[in-house]
Amino acid sequence: MVLKAKTSRRDNVQKQEALEAAAQEETKRLNLEIPASLHKTMKKRAADEERSVKDMVLQAVGEYLSKYSNE
């Protein structure tokens, strides 16, 4: 009886995405309370732009830090 290695269910694109995700910088969790109206507005805008609230927040924080890092 000859045993064969299982074939991967991931195609090359999925494999590459998984490798890139594994190579990303370590993350830390940030929890904060915001007004419900702001949360609702952010969720709606994120859905309209087909992106996540996380992406929006990271972009906003990055832009803020870039703007004020020279002071």
How far is the N terminus from the C terminus?
71 Å
**Global mean pLDDT:** 85
Give the total of beta strands. 0
- Report the structural category: mainly alpha
**Percentage of β-strand residues:** under 5%
Describe this structure in words.
- With 71 residues, the chain is mainly alpha-helical.
- Helices cover 56% and strands 0% of the residues.
- It has three helices and no strands.
- The chain has helices spanning 12-22, 36-48, 53-68.
- The longest helix is centred in the C-terminal third of the chain and has 16 residues, at 53-68.
- The protein is elongated, with a radius of gyration of 20 Å.
- 0% of the residues are buried.
- The mean pLDDT is 85.
Quick description:
With 71 residues, this protein is mainly α.
Question: Which characteristics define this entry?
Answer:
about 70 residues, mainly alpha, about 55% helix, about 0% strand, elongated
Tell me the layout of helices and strands.
Elements: H1 12-22, H2 36-48, H3 53-68
